[in-house]
Design goal:
Mean pLDDT: 95
Order of helices and strands: EEEEEHH
Shape: globular
Structural class: alpha+beta
Largest sheet: 3 strands, antiparallel
Low-confidence stretches: none
Number of helices: 2
Number of strands: 5
Distance between the termini: 53 Å
Helix content: 25-40%
Strand order of the largest sheet: 1-2-3
């Protein structure tokens, strides 16, 4: 059986706020920097989602808005692939468009 590892290294300032986030994987990518990450883990014992949300001081508000929008779209795609719930995935995408319009990421439809 093959294994793969993803490693995150978070440098913190004196107040324990993230200054930089580096990540790498054993599948061949070189060490890369990112400004933000959201990790969701399913705990089967507790039947609950655990989360890790981090962003650096350098992450701009406009970047965070785009990050959330793109994450919402990706979640809709993943939800559709995992559940075959096409209608709900489309509803999630509709919300993603609404979110993007409200955050001025895209032009509003008439």
């Amino acid at each position: 059986m093959a294994t793969s590892e993803i490693k995150f290294t978070v440098k913190l300032d004196e107040n324990k706020l993230p200054v930089s986030i580096d990540w790498e994987s054993t599948d061949g990518n070189e060490k890369s920097q990112c400004k933000s990450l959201m990790i969701s883990l399913w705990d089967p014992k507790e039947k609950n989602t655990l989360r890790i949300d981090l962003w650096t001081k350098e992450m701009l508000v406009d970047e965070m808005k785009k990050f959330f929008h793109q994450s919402l779209v990706s979640m809709a795609d993943t939800f559709q692939r995992a559940t075959n719930e096409d209608k709900m995935a489309d509803d999630m995408r509709d919300f993603s468009i609404y979110f993007a319009e409200k955050m001025d990421l895209i032009e509003k439809k008439n």
